[in-house]
Design goal:
With about 350 residues, the chain is mostly beta strands. Helix content is about 5%, strand content about 55%.
C-alpha cells in the first residue's frame, strides 16, 4: 500500500504535462505573525502560587517560496520557524516544513503539515482566535492552569493526533462548493529522519470533505473528517483500535455567524480490555461589521475512562472582541472562564481577562 501511495503521488505531481524546468528559480519571501497579550488569571491556591498578572506571546516566521514550471505546475515551499514566546520545548525549532504541488488536479502536500481533515475543518466562530486556533488559549491551560491529573484526549476540535508528523496529503479542487481530501501518515514521528519503530500508531489514513456555498445571502460552511490507524495490531503500547471522526458547521447572514464542531475519539486497549474514549465540542456566535467583530463561544473536552479511572472534563466559556487597526495589525481582548476536573481532587477553575495585539506579515 505504501508503495502505491508514493508512486501515485509522484505520477500526479510530475506526470501532468511531463517533467519541465521552472522558468524562474524559487525565491524565498518572509511571512509570519507575532501575538502578545497582557492579562490576569485567577487560579486555585492549592495548585501553587501562580502569577496573577502575566505577559504571554507566540511568534512564528515563515519562509515562503514558489515557482511555476513550463508545464503549468506550481511548486512551492513553506518552512515555519518558531520564534519564541510560546511553550514549545522541542529541540527542533521548526514548526512545519513542507512542499506543495498545485495544478488543475488540486494540491499535493508532502512534509510536516497538518492532515487534510484538520486543514479543512470548520469550527465555532471566534473573533479573537483564542478559543483553539492560537497557542494562547484557555483549554490549553495557558491562563487558568490545567492540573496535570486532568486527562483529555484532545485540545482542539479538529483531528490532530499526529500533529505535524511527516505525511502526504491531497486536496481536490472544489466542484459545486464541495472538495475532498486525503492524507497518509506513516508514523507519529515528528521531524525525525531516523527509521520509526512500529511502537505507536502507524499507517494512519485520513479522509475529509468540505462544503462552502451561499444561498440568498446565507453562507454555509461544513466539514467532515475521519482518521484510522491501519496497523492496529502492531502497536506495542497495547492499543488495538484507534479512530477519530469530526464534523463542523457554520451559517452566516448579515454579519452574524453561528456554528460549532464535534470530534469523537475512540481508543480500545487490548491489553486491559478497556476503552478510552473522548470527545470535544465547540459552539459559538459572532457578529462582525467593518473592522470590528465580537463573539461568544463554548468549548467542552471530555475523556471517558481516563487515566486513573473516571471521566475528566474541561469546559470553557469566553467572550472575545477584535478590531483591525490597519493591514496586519489587530487589537483583541478575551474574557473567559475555565473549569477543569476529574473524578478525584485534581481540579481547578477560574476567570481570566487578557488583551493585546496580533500582528501578521
Amino acid at each position: 500500500m505504501k508503495t502505491i501511495l508514493f508512486a501515485s503521488t509522484a505520477l500526479v505531481a510530475l506526470g501532468v504535462g511531463g517533467i519541465a524546468h521552472a522558468a524562474d528559480p524559487i525565491a524565498l519571501t518572509l511571512g509570519g505573525y507575532t501575538r502578545y497579550y497582557v492579562g490576569y488569571a485567577d487560579n486555585d491556591d492549592s495548585l501553587g502560587d501562580y502569577q496573577d498578572f502575566d505577559v504571554k506571546g507566540a511568534n512564528e516566521v515563515y519562509f515562503l517560496g514558489s515557482t511555476t514550471l513550463d508545464n503549468g505546475l506550481k511548486v512551492g515551499v513553506d518552512i515555519q520557524l518558531e520564534a519564541g514566546g510560546n511553550t514549545d520545548t522541542r529541540n527542533n525549532n521548526i514548526d512545519e516544513a513542507y512542499i506543495t504541488v498545485d495544478g488543475a488536479f488540486g494540491r499535493v502536500i508532502v512534509g510536516a503539515e497538518n492532515n487534510a481533515a484538520y486543514l479543512m475543518h470548520v469550527t465555532a466562530p471566534d473573533a479573537a482566535g483564542t478559543l483553539e486556533a492560537s497557542e494562547i488559549n484557555l483549554m490549553g491551560g495557558t491562563w487558568v492552569v490545567r492540573p496535570g491529573g486532568v486527562d483529555s484526549l484532545q485540545r482542539e476540535s479538529g483531528i490532530d493526533v499526529e500533529s505535524d508528523a511527516e505525511k502526504i496529503t491531497y486536496i481536490s479542487p472544489a466542484f459545486g462548493g464541495l472538495s475532498v481530501g486525503f492524507s497518509y501518515v506513516p508514523s507519529l514521528g515528528d521531524h525525525d529522519q531516523r527509521p520509526n519503530l512500529e511502537d505507536d500508531l502507524t499507517d494512519l489514513v485520513v479522509v475529509a470533505a468540505a462544503y462552502k456555498a451561499s444561498f440568498g445571502g446565507v453562507g454555509i460552511e461544513a466539514s467532515a473528517g475521519y482518521l484510522t490507524a491501519l496497523e492496529e495490531n502492531e502497536i506495542a503500547s497495547g492499543t488495538s483500535d484507534y479512530d477519530e471522526v469530526s464534523t463542523g458547521l457554520q451559517l452566516s447572514y448579515a454579519g452574524v455567524t453561528v456554528g460549532g464542531s464535534y470530534v469523537n475519539i475512540n481508543e480500545n486497549t487490548a491489553a486491559t480490555n478497556s476503552s478510552r474514549d473522548g470527545r470535544v465540542l465547540t459552539a459559538g456566535v459572532q457578529y462582525a461589521t467593518g473592522p470590528a467583530a465580537v463573539s461568544f463561544a463554548y468549548m467542552d473536552s471530555k475523556a471517558e475512562g481516563a487515566a486513573g479511572g473516571g471521566d475528566d472534563q474541561g469546559q470553557i466559556y469566553q467572550a472575545s472582541g477584535k478590531y483591525n487597526l490597519g493591514p496586519g495589525v489587530a487589537a483583541v481582548a478575551t474574557v473567559g472562564h475555565a473549569d477543569f476536573e476529574d473524578e478525584g481532587a485534581d481540579a481547578n477553575d477560574g476567570w481570566t481577562a487578557f488583551g493585546g495585539l496580533q500582528l501578521s506579515f
